Amino acid sequence: MDPSYVAAMIDAFQQARVVNYAHVSALAIMIYDIFTTLDLEMTHIWAARWSPPKVLYLIARYYALFHLSLVLAVDVTLGVNLNLTLYANHSERTLALTSIRCNGFFRINGFGLQLLADIADALLIMRLRCMYNNSKRVTLVLGALFVIQAIIQAVVIGFSTSNSGAVEPPPGLSAQWPGCFYTSLPPRYDIVAWLTSLLFAIILFAMTLHKLWQFRCGGMKAGGLFVIFAQDGVMFFATIFVLELLNTVVTWVVTISDGRLLGIGVPWTVACYGIVSSRLVLNVREYGAEMQQLSLPSRSKTTAESQHIREAV
């Protein structure tokens, strides 16, 4: 075997190990967050009636867990191409099936992150719609921007994953070959997907701050619900901005020799979307439950806030 090929293969495995460490840490944080909020989830999600926010919550929460678990399982499994076929002894069919399975895995890995990002954006749009008094213009503008950025990301991810192939294991090493490796770096236009998502997050955050500024300029004090909206908005924007900026920079500067490190920030982004999306729902519903307990002394105020809470989540 060519020594240069062996050196490149060893380097790729070392990079894959670093990315797997990121996956393990992100998965651990995700599991920890699920257990620490399980009591709130049982009270405010599972016991509640079915609604769009509840569905979005469950998808974001448990698809993120599934996604991280799947990617990590594939990345650390040896001979994954031999475990799923009855024709492992036929090299031609094995290689063909390996390519099909890895290409499918690449698509899941790409579109799964977009699914989580779209869910978080949809939950934030519901909140902004509430903050802007159910303005039809705001709803239409945000809905249009949401669809546009989602389409752009889907097209970029679709082309990127369609043009990506899987590395075929060298003869005799199929059973010891871990996971799926790209034959080449994803195209540079992948950065468009990250920038589009980043720009939309900035717009949502700016609209949240604008509404709070309107309250202040009007001499009004933002109610408790809007304070929750603002706090969650800052939490969401700060974490997502840092992670998506990291992914954007990595996509731009990474070289072919460091190709596997291209995904170093993705596990944390997946975990962040799963955690933040759940908090966007849980925090508001927990606040609503507290307001219901105080409804007798100030029924009119809490009734109005309860209406906002139902509209938001």
From TrEMBL:
A Pfam family it matches: DUF6533
Keywords from the named record: Membrane, Transmembrane, Transmembrane helix
InterPro entries tied to this protein: DUF6533 (IPR045340)
Domain DUF6533 as annotated: residue spans: 21-65
Residue ranges of the TM segments: 20-41, 62-84, 138-159, 191-213, 234-255, 261-282
Protein name, as recorded: DUF6533 domain-containing protein
